């Protein structure tokens, strides 16, 4: 049996909407519904060299770590948020982040 060959697709073949990028060369953007609003989600390789704060876990995303950027579909640049991939996936299961003192009761 000969090995499998991965040949590039022909340039004149039509792309499906699932595999074509929506943002004109910015990667594979997709639209997801969250809290009754459409959000644009874009995966990022993490090569910007900047630190970001994930709103899902309130932890820092260091440079070089892959993550996602999400913003409301009709929002502006200031509405973009950088999330860990796992935090974005679990956003429906997470409750509100309650800040407590070190010795405060958990009830």
Automatic annotation (TrEMBL):
Residues 1-31 are annotated as: Disordered. It comes from the Bacteria. This is ATP/GTP-binding protein.
